[in-house]
Amino acid sequence: MKYKLRIPSKQVLKYRNLYTEGFEENLEPFRALARKQRHLTVDQLYEICRWKSPRRPDLAKKNDSQFVQEITHFAFSAKCEASRIGALTLLQGVQYPTASVILHFCVDPTYPILDFRAIWSLGIKQPSFYTASFWTEYVNICREVANKHGLAVRELDMALWKYSELHQPTRAT
């Protein structure tokens, strides 16, 4: 997959600094908790879903608690990237973007958070649906670009998101 960063290289940090964090700090404790528990609970899943997509976080509450624990435990310990992200999408209310948040906050902060805004800012064509191969390539691109600019992957996410918010043409409704 080819990309062309839309943000001028010298302005990446500027856009990162323009990003105002919401209640993202509420998700930061999930890092230590997920490592200790080695899974998520339904309530924790709900909070993550609420942060990523406030439109339908109630879907997360429809998951059986044992199912959430087993799926997240599997995903946290899986070695295969396709298995890791694919397993999370078995949960109600979790699609690739939310699964990316779970991976970022609960498994490894070098996972980017998948978002149409970030995809646009990277000059990548928005796929009609996400696949494991798209995800793997996206992760690699984000890690490469973050490294090139001396940023953490989450800082790159913030810059990409903010740049899109300020420059991406509005989508037709």
Short note summarizing the structure:
This protein has 173 residues and is mainly α. The protein is 56% helix and 0% strand.
Beta strand count: 0
The poorly predicted ranges are none
Total of helices? 9
- Overall 3D geometry? globular
The helix content is 55-70%
Number of domains: 1
Major β-sheet profile: none
Radius of gyration: 16 Å
Distance between the termini: 28 Å
**Proportion in β-strands:** under 5%
Overall structural class, as computed from helix and strand content, comes to mainly alpha
Oligomeric state: single chain
> Whole-number average pLDDT?
92
Topology pattern, helix = H, strand = E: HHHHHHHHH
Note down, in words, how this protein is organized:
The chain has one domain. The protein contains nine helices and no strands. It starts with 11 loop residues before the first helix and ends in a 6-residue tail after the last helix. The relative contact order is 0.17. By secondary structure, it is mainly alpha-helical. The radius of gyration is 16 Å and the shape is globular. The longest helix is centred in the last third of the chain and has 17 residues, at 132-148.
Key words describing this protein structure:
0% strand, mainly alpha, globular, 173 residues, 56% helix
